[in-house]
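W.,

You were right to be curious about this one. When I first looked at the sequence I had no strong expectations either way, so I just let the prediction run and decided to look at it fresh. Below is the sequence, 321 residues in total, followed by the output.
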Amino acid sequence: MTMNQALTKEKLSRPLTLFMALVCLLVPVVSAPIALLLGIVVAVLVGNSLIDLTKKLTPRLLGFSIMGLGAGMDLAVVAKAGLQGIWYTIFGIGLTMTTGLLLAKALRTEKESSILISVGTAICGGSAIAAVAPAMNAKQHSISIALGTVFILNALALVIFPFIGHALGLTEVQFGLWSALAIHDTSSVVGATLQYGPEAVQVGTSVKLARALWILPVTLVFSYLYANNQEGGKKAKFPWFVLGFVFMAAVFTYFPALHDVGGLIEYAARRCLVLTLFFIGTNLTPATIRTVGIKSFLLGFSLWILVASITLGAILHGFIH
């Protein structure tokens, strides 16, 4: 690439990123997977000169989006979905972590990044990785590998899962469960279920957020295991948006007069989520993809396929419902 081409890309990057962000936020026909794809296209074609800003905004926008979606949820459905999933959540986290470490040993991947990829697959993707990494005092390179792997697989899941769900004739409840248990990040779970139906969104979001609560005990376990390896690492952050989601669901469930307001908040949250997925796409730069490496990606991909296949089989045979 010549110097002039590089400068042209730099000049185009900022205005194009901002313009496409507005399109994703304001144009209703832009769905979650389209927004993610647009973000990736922008990152590949002209780069993301605002990457520090978009990385900072992504978790905050996701949190507010999840909270806002609670305004359109029935608290009874949320509670039922969350409580029903507790036992296979415990079993699933343990099995996924064990399988991930065995695969890492077989593939001879780096220990830290392998643990973080396994944690992200077992609980809730980037949020779990961000929480557990300080507890392990993990190196930045290991964190980047794990996050890059999860981001790539999230992008695939957002497109592939609805297609498979329709092909197999999954009900909305089945698809919501499968998405929550087999897709890494909450944002992609919501994005996938939004394409499937309102009941899928309720079940998927509720089960995924209940699973996200396990960030805290799992982080405490790693803090204990790596207690002698700490050098002033940051404290893990609790996923505050979980409590916000429940609060919003409670308010708009028990005050029916606010139903119209709740509908407006939910719509705004859906558009905000689409914008968030665009930013996630812009963060998936060629440099991020190169950082991951073949072995680490193979570990994450293999573990994801195993979890998705076993979970889908269990749902189809009625073991999970």
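Here's what jumped out at me. The two ends are 54 Å apart (CA to CA). And, maybe more interesting for your project: The longest helix spans residues 140-168.

Coffee later to discuss?

I.
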